[in-house]
Specification:
By secondary structure, chain A is mainly α. Chain A is built from 3 helices and no strands. The longest helix of chain A has 20 residues. In chain B, α3 packs across α7. Classes of the chains: A mainly alpha (46), B alpha+beta (215). Chain B: It comes from Kibdelosporangium persicum.
Amino acid sequence: MIVRAFFLGQSVAELATLLNVPPDIIRARMYYGLRALHLALQQTPS
Amino acid sequence: MTSYREWDAAYVLGSLSPDERREYEEHLETCESCARQVAELSGLPAILSTLPQQQAVELLDEPQDMMPTLITAARKSRRWTRIGIAAAVVTAAALGAVLAVVLRPSQPTEAGGVTTQLTQTVPSPVTASVTLVEEPWGTRIDVKCEYGGQPGGRALPYTLFIADSSGALTRVGSWSAGPGTSMTPTATTDVPRGQITRIEIRLATNDRTVLEARF
């Protein structure tokens, strides 16, 4: 989802149509996905 | 009433539509908790952009561990994340500005700035000029992009990047354009006019630079 949004520039609406799920679910997947990435990066010792 | 709680990631990834983005930015002005959420995520696009686009897109077909690359990038940017929430909120505001790209109806691009023609780095039907306008908060970049050929062909996505004097390359906007059309997208950045060293327009499908200007 992150790759599609950030690197392919696909919008929430495009992804909702493409994956046949409501826009709210797309935003939620980005929400949880980006947080998981953020957390994983924070937990890495510097 | 719309719940904006889960809109932050779509916002920082640049995936909201222009209308949704405006709506969310209005909400951010009044909602401290959403503004804080955006601030927390605001460093991630810069870290993600260290991954070459092609490599990232290949992940859709062949998942592999990209964490080592991202961790290296995160370490480099970590000093920024340590500055704290107050600074992060400022960053979020700046990021909002960076993500703000509005497609405007055609209008003269000369508005106190200097217009520069971009040169083609690979042969293509696309020509463009940019006008950099100094603003108190950074720089406004008015792009005029002409796509030759007969109208009716498939539109392709383009991205606008700026390089600054620190060597950092930042994506400041994107749009799509098809044959026989003329576009005037405007991008904004917090980078001062004098620190912009290069502007690139890339074809987003392969991340190849098609036009560039150096300053």
